[in-house]
Amino acid sequence: MGGKAFSQLLPRASFPRMSPSKYQSLKATYLPRLRGLYGLVEVPREAPEKTDHGDLDFIVAFPKEGLEHSEVKAALGASASIPLDGNRTSHFAVPAEMGEDEYIQVDVHVCADKEEWERIVLFHSFGDLGMILGVLAKSGGLQLGTKGLKVHNIFPEENHPVSFPLSASFEKIMPYFGLSLDTWKQGFSSQKEIFQWVETSRFFEPRRLVKASTFETPNAKERSLEDRGMYQSFLVHVREIASQQDVDTWPRLKTKAEIRDEALTYFDKKEAYERLVHDNWVKARVRATWNGNKVIEWTGLWGLRVRELMQEVERRVGGKEGIAGMEDGEIKKTALEAHETLKRVWAAAAVGGIEVDGGVIQQAV
C-alpha cells in the first residue's frame, strides 16, 4: 500500500489503494502538468491484470531552469511532501477526494540524463518484470538493475573484482539475454504472456533459478514480499517446471565462471576485466613481498632512506610490475645490491660528490 513514506509526517492519514480506473484518471491528469515542468516524463507501464495500485510513480528528467519543489507540489495539488534534492525520489501526498485524511501517494523520481531515465522506465515497467529479469541474471552470476548489467562475484576468485560493469544499455542487454525488446515494446496482456517471454531467455533454466531465488530476501528499499505478487507467481511457475523435469535428462549447466567469460566477450570487456584482475594481482603481490618493513628488516635503514632505496629498486626492475614478477629471494637480493650502491652514493653526497634526485642516482654538478 502507498503512504509508507508519510507514516510520521501524516500519522492519521490513510492511503487507500486505487482502482485501475482511478489510477488511469490520475495519470492522465498529472502527466501533462509534469510535462510542463520537465523535459521527459513517463509512468512505467503497468503490470497486466493488476487489480489495484498503491501509488503513482512518475520518472522524470531535465527540469525546467530554476524549477522549485513548491512548483511540483502545486502542480500535483499535494497537501504534504517529502522533498529530496538531486537525482532522487520526492514523495507527495495528494488528497484522494474519498474522505477526510485520505490521500494518494505520488512519487516523482528525477533522473540525471536521458539514458538513466530510459533504463528506470524500462526496468520498472510491467510490475515485477524487472525483478524477474534480475533473478535471471543472478542465476548466472550477474547483476541486473537500473544501472545496467554487471558481473557480480559474491565469492570472487583471488584478485577478481566483486563487481564489474558490462553494459548500461538495455538495447544491448536484452539481446544478450535472448529476449526480444520489440516484444517488450509491444507490451503484454497477461502474466502468462510475460512468463512465456521470459522463458525465451538463454538464462531461463528452472533448476538454476530455483536455487538463485531460494535466499531472495528484500532489503529495506524493496517492497515487502506480499506486495510482489507477479514475482511470487513466477517463482511458483519456475518450481513447477523444475519439479517436472527428469533429473536423468538434465543437460550440464554452465558454470558462473563460464557465463562470466562469455558475457565479457559479448560486451567486449574481456581485455579490461583481465587487466583489472592483473592489476589486482600486482597490488596484492607487491603488498605481500615489497614493503617498508621488509626493507628495514633486510637493511636496517630507517625513515627517508627506506623510501629512497625502494625507489631505486623499482627503477632498476621496471616499477611495481617488475617487483610482482620476481621471486621473494630475488627481490631481497636486488634490494641489498641497491643498498650497497646507495651507501656509497650517500657517503659521496655527504661531501658534495653525488646526489639522489627522486631515487635516481646522478653525478652532482
How would you summarize what this structure contains?
This protein is of the alpha+beta class and 365 residues long. 48% of the residues lie in helices and 15% in strands. It has three domains: 4-114, Beta Polymerase, domain 2, CATH 3.30.460.10; 126-266, no CATH class; 290-363, no CATH class.
Commentary on this structure:
It is a single chain. The chain is of the alpha+beta class and 365 residues long. It folds into three domains: 111 residues, Beta Polymerase, domain 2, CATH 3.30.460; 141 residues, no CATH class; 74 residues, no CATH class. It is 48% helix and 15% strand. The protein is built from 15 helices and ten strands. The strands form three sheets. Strands 1-2-5-4-3 form a five-stranded mixed β-sheet. Strands 6-7-8 form a three-stranded antiparallel β-sheet. A two-stranded antiparallel sheet has the order 9-10. The chain is elongated and about 90 Å long. The chain starts with 19 loop residues before the first helix and ends with a strand.
